[in-house]
């Protein structure tokens, strides 16, 4: 068995089912040749950025490292934005790229220091040049999945991967660190003294175990929950205890300030806004899997370890909180209302979300791009499960929703995948419409088409600057989608909107709904939610 064959078998054993990427003519071809035999499907993408996002999202959904393969030079350089997503949005990812042999020092063509370019984002790297390359691979995969999850990198050369694979012995898994019992005791005292605890659940709450622990905690305490965008669905949006989303804005501020204890459950500062923490006067109990390079606040007490085990441990003996149901309902209504600012002309963004929710199954998984449209989508669409909503929050990159929805459709084909994207974000990855058709993905893509970068325009307006540099020429995305083999609808009236979603729900095929929206309501919406 060659090292290539052994690598492919080892990657398949981790639970991965897809390798995403765009190959060059060197080691990539060896990997493709062995992928099918090992049970891995190679997905030929149109851009390396989208391929890396797809691999990262596949990792988030399966819990196993995502796999991305590129050629050297321009290939790996184009993947950088996706690697940054894996780093900041905490997705385990194995990046594989061609390199040059040790005796090819004379070559300068397409040569950049690839590892150095990626290193600020990487958790580990290797050239598989030790006596046991498979042990190196296993170590990298363990590194990618360790807290916090993130990307690792292998630079491949033919002389190494075409050699015979040496025998290897799998290392035993490291023991899980136990929780600090003294910290647990102090945390119990903090909870016992609180009458109005509020749980702020972050991206670490997205695992099934962490979500289950959160359900038990709310049942015990009867306290309110705010979820971050990444944690949407970790506790059901429709539950009366879920007030809405924490975004560091004004909409949720009254609820937070009414609490006498904040339980920060798996909250990662990477999701916080680029501003200082404004609740320092409220005692904070932090339950987190790991510490942070850029902490947003100094908690009153931090309990570091598996959050799914820490939460029930600190709640041992705790009784119901003192939150009145009517008060929680009032906070919930206020946050929801901020996402429904009316507009006087055309189709309002929230009408698009309402139409989608009315026609599509509640079990659908959504992917949301960066942009003004994400505010009504995330605050109106109801998710009931962890990982039922996908978003780039740490990196907040545009061009995310379409690749994420395609990955969701490939990994979980029985669940409808829906991408909500702005026109700017979709233009960054339009070619992936072809990837979906080629590999049988069937997402529904909803385009909020206002021919502008509206979220940036809101910032421009707030600074009282002249409107300039943010408008696109008009694009009929439905017509573009039909050229790739999608079913495409161009919507300009409310009647057409309802019909398009009804047909998309019935057909269950790759469908793009291009909606002309009135963006006027965005500006008031942003003020109402963010301040």
Task: Describe the model.
This protein starts with a helix and ends with a helix. It has helices at 3-13, 27-38, 48-62, 74-78, 80-88, 114-118, 133-145, 158-161, 181-193, 208-221, 253-257, 307-314, 325-338, 349-359, 374-380, 401-411, 423-427, 432-439, 454-462, 477-484, 494-507, 520-530, and strands spanning 18-22, 41-44, 66-70, 93-98, 124-126, 151-156, 197-201, 225-227, 242-245, 261-265, 284-288, 301-304, 365-368, 389-391, 417-422, 444-449, 487-491, 511-516. The chain is built from 22 helices and 18 strands. The chain has a 6-stranded parallel sheet. A 6-stranded parallel sheet has the order 9-8-7-10-11-12. Strands 14-13-15-16-18-17 form a 6-stranded parallel sheet, with helices on both faces. It has 531 residues and is an alpha/beta fold. It folds into 3 domains: 3-161, Rossmann fold, CATH 3.40.50.970; 181-335, Rossmann fold (3-Layer(aba) Sandwich); 339-530, Rossmann fold.
